[in-house]
Amino acid sequence: MGTVEQVSIEDISTMLDCGDGFGQGDNAVNGDHLWTETSCSGELCYLGEDACLLKTAKSSPRRKCAACKIVVHTGCIEQLEKINFRCKPTFREGGSRCLRDNVLRHHWVHRRRQEGKCKQCGKSFQQKFFHSKEIIAISCSWCKQAFHNKVTCFMLHQIEEPCSLGAHAGVIVPPSWIIKVRKPQSSLKNSARRKKRTSFKRRASKKGLDDSKWRPFILKPLPSPLMKPVLVFVNPKSGGNQGAKLLQMFMWILNPRQVFDLSQGGLREALELYRKVPNLRILACGGDGTVGWILSALDELQMNPQPPVAVLPLGTGNDLARTLNWGGGYTDEPVSKVLCHVEDGSVVQLDRWNLLVEKTSAQPEEGTQKLPLNVFNNYFSLGFDAHVTLEFHESREANPEKFNSRFRNKMFYAGAAFSDFLQRSSRDLSKHVRVVCDGTDLTPKIQELKFQCIVFLNIPR
Predict the structure, then answer these.
(1) Residue range 198-234, pLDDT digits in tens
(2) Alpha carbons 420 and 413: distance in angstroms, whole number
(3) What are phi and psi of 436, to 5 degrees?
(4) Coil, strand or helix: which one is 326?
C-alpha cells in the first residue's frame, strides 16, 4: 500500500507491512520477579523438597514469574528471597561505574522440564509424563540456551559468560540501556545568612521545577544498524481477551521494560522514554482502535522520525491489520515468529485524515458532543453502521466481561445491526446530509437513493 498522490493528505504515518507497564516507578528493584497467578498446581515448587515450606500441601496456590518462568508456592516467595534467587535484570543503576555492571551475563535457571535439544551435546531433553523432581536442564532466561544438568554438558566457567540475548537480540532492549536515576534532593540546607535568603528561595524554586521534570528511568542507547528495538503495547480488552497471555509471552522473550499493558496506562510516558532510541519499532497488540490510540499519541509527541507501527490483531474487525497483511485475527502464532515479522517487515506509508466538525447555526448548544478524536485511519461513516458501532462500544464499556471472545463480539454486531435495520433509525439520513466531493455535489444522488449510511474509505477493506 503506497501513498495516494492525487488527494490532499493532512498527515502521513509510517506503518509496518508484514509480507505500566512493568514497574517503571522509582521504587523498582532490579531482579524482582513478575509474579502472576498460575494453574500449574501439579508443577513442583522451584525451591525443591529440601527448601520448600509447603511440600506437603498439594493444593497450595502457586505463582509463576513471567520473565524467568519459575513456579513457586505463594507462601515460599519469602524463602526464595532469602536464598537470593533473583529474576533476570532489566536495568542498571545510574550510580554504578563498574564495567562489570554494564556487561549482560546469562541468567541461569534450573529446569525440571525443558523442550528442545542441549546446546552442548545436541541430544533432546528427556520428557516425562509426570512432573519430575529431578533437575534435567539449566537454561538462560535471556538467550534461551539450554544444557543438560551434567558436568559434561554444562561447565562452571559458563556461569560468568556474557549473554548474546539469543535469536531476538536485534529487537531486545538491553538492560544496560535503561538506567535508573536517583531522585534529586528537593530540600536545601538552612543558612544563617539572612542576606542570601532571597537567592536561596530562587534556587529552591528552580529545584522544584527540576523535580517536576524528573523521571525514574532514562535511556542511553548504543546505536547499531543491526538493531531494531521493539516497543510492545498490549490492550488486554481487545477482541477475545488474549492480551493477558501475550503480555507474559513477550515478557519472557523480551526485556519486560519494553512491554506495556495499556489497561494500566503509561502510553505517553513509554513513548517519551524511548523516543530517542534509533531504529525504534512499535508493536500494537489490539484492535484498530488501539492502533489509532497509539498513532494519536505519536502525533502529540511529534516524534521525529516517527517510529513505524506493526499490528498484532486482537480486535473484532481488524480491518487495518488485514490491509497491512498482518491477518484478520491472532490465532496463537508463536510470539517468536511475530517478532521476526516485526523486525523484517517493510515500512509503508498510511494516509491519515483530519476531520473538521463545525456546528451549524440551527444546531442547539445543548446535546452537542465533541469528537474524542479528530483523525481517522480506516474510514469515517454516518448513519446506520456508525450507530451500531457506537452501541457496541457503549455496551462493551459498561459490561466488558461479556465481550471476552472475537466470535461473541461479532454476534453482538450482527444482532445490533439486525435490530437497528428493522427500526430504520437512519432512514432520514439523506434529508440531513450534503456531500460535495472534489467540487461535485452528490447530494441529489444520495437523496434519490435514500442511503441509510455513508462511508468514506481510507483502506480497501
Answers:
(1) 444 444 444 444 556 778 899 999 888 889 999 999 9
(2) 10
(3) -120, 120
(4) coil
